[in-house]
Amino acid sequence: MRLHRTAPLRYLSLLLACWLTVFLATRGVLLATHLHEAGGIAPGVFAVGLLYDLGFLAYAALPLGLYLLLCPPSLWRRPGHRLGLGLLLLASLFLMLFVATAEWLFWDEFGVRFNFIAVDYLVYSDEVLNNLLESYPIGLLLSCLGVFAALIALALHRPLTAALLAPLPSWRQRGMAVVGLLLAAGLSLALLDQDNPRGLGGNAYRHELASNGPYQFFAAFRNNELDYQQFYSSLPDRQVAPTLRRELAEPTATFVGSDPLDVRRQIDNPGTPRKLNIVLVTIESLSAKYLGSFGDPRGLTPNLDQLRQQSLFFNNFYATGTRTDRGLEAITLAIPPTPGRSIVKRIGRESGYASLGQQLAAQGYDSAFVYGGRGYFDNMNAFFAGNGYRVVDQSSVADSDIHFKNAWGMADEDLYAQAIRLADADHAAGKPFLLQLMTTSNHRPYTYPDGRIDILSGEGREGAVKYTDHAIGQFLTAARAKPWFDDTLFVFVADHCAGSAGMEDLPVANYHIPLYIYAPKWLQPREDGQLASQIDLAPTLLGLLNLDYQSTFFGRDLLKPNAAPPRVLIGNYQHLGLFDGNDLAILSPRQHLRRHDDALHTSRESSVDSQDPLLQRDIAYYQAASHDFQSRLLGWRGPRGELEVGQQ
């Protein structure tokens, strides 16, 4: 009797064949809908993809395979057991169709296979489930998947029956099969990882298509924190330190740390300190490309287009990452996007930093983080409460003050109304304030109050952008009538762009966002075209206030002369980039180094070594940022110079 003809292996083979078929169909559909981006049909995509498919199934099949092979013959022959295996096939068919549909929807939103975003979405299931319920006809979708799974199961009735009634293997044969399953899982562990054999560099769409969504999900879950020294190229500290200090040198800065990679420096800003209020609005997913003043013809942003003419506007400004927590990390701590999860979400290591809010709280400010949603999402409450802010989120606001909300939180206009009330209270108490807002309306399901704009709620991103702009216009109109308006800096910046997928691992254009600093009494309107990013915002604001402080920021004061060459730091949880306005250097796991010349246009990729000057700058920032985080050199120091709780 041949082993592969025995009942357990015939049943397992039938199940795995179904999964492989679905994986192949998913890859084919995604490729067919993105042929141009993938550069046409590529057989290698399917060959490498098959390896990942088999690798995932080697893991997934192990528990069931062991059960089937070790199941006693007396149990196997029972009708109830066979019925259970038939129902298991039906459930598995439904699950695989559900996973395929989820992958297609995830790709539609993010342009990639499952990754760390999907892991986060699983953790914060309440918001995500409500988002799905409000965005898609989930009941109808699940019903269709159930019917389709039942039809496939019906079509497989004969081969299923034949498999269940096939002869059972001997115990010696069972042992051989168990060894085979363990060997397959071991080979998968040894030969596959997130980047190999699909590779790095080249066409990012091909790499994503060549992978397997469930495999990538579990790999991202396992690798959500990556040690820089272990996974990335580094240089001796004595070589990195001079590069880093050249990058961060300013006329008003004096380095005070003894560690060669310590960026701590004393900032002595000239002039009389200004106790100006700051309202810092971080806008969900506001890509620069949506603004009419950047060429969008749809008229979605009339208020922001007008505000550009009235503000200090930075037109060459970039987000550091692709997620809200990365934007908040960069704006609040002015640190590059170190590999793995952001500091905001590193539970147990998320507090005690010399943040923007902590710096201003030490100057007598009321530093408040005001979020339209529930602040447990992305660990925001713990992060901001541990870094000098008081937290005001959706749960802090009376129901009577929330006129519209969706899965992600209250509508922007309700958030701005709350900010007005907080500012009024601080002004009445004679206390300067930093109100750091985080909006939610420009996010799927793209719903907002009816009657505000001429696009129906829930119609898509276009309406959400227009409503976002409408709410900002309303907010500024209300603020101009307030006694605290003249002495307030209004800052509007995006947390990240609406989409980060592209043909490169770090498509630079997809990180371009606007930055407005609006204060008619204090700032003359003008355009600033210097290359800058979110990590430069905090030092620029403290410079505008003429404050002296001890900085752990990796950013620069954009309004002070600086001899260092231009740069922005962009990344996702794996790839770490430095863009100098023309070329992009990328650090990737396994000490992989490359650069893209003319990154915004032709993007010519080449492999380089660590002696490439652009790569050396890239390494200097990320090696130092990871070192300073691990060595607890970024902490807030109290009045006697001691590290505060959370950094000791």
**How far apart lie the N and C ends?**
67 Å
Which CATH class of the largest domain is shown? Answer: Alpha Beta
Number of helices: 22
Low-confidence stretches: none
How is the main sheet built? 9 strands, mixed
> Could you state the CATH homologous superfamily of the largest domain?
Alkaline Phosphatase, subunit A
User: Any idea what the radius of gyration is?
Assistant: 27 Å
The shape is globular
Going by CATH, the architecture of the largest domain would be 3-Layer(aba) Sandwich
**Broad structural category:** alpha/beta
Kindly identify the CATH topology of the largest domain: Alkaline Phosphatase, subunit A
* Number of structural domains: 2
What does this protein structure show overall?
The protein has two domains: about 5-220, no CATH class; about 275-550, 3-Layer(aba) Sandwich (Alkaline Phosphatase, subunit A). Helices cover about 45% and strands about 15% of the residues. It contains 22 helices and 19 strands. The strands form four sheets. Strands 3, 4, 5, 6, 9, 10, 11, 12 and 13 form a nine-stranded mixed β-sheet that branches. Strands 15-16-17-18-19 form a five-stranded antiparallel β-sheet, with helices on one face. A hairpin with a 4-residue loop joins strand 15 (about 570) and strand 16 (about 575-580). The mean pLDDT is about 90.
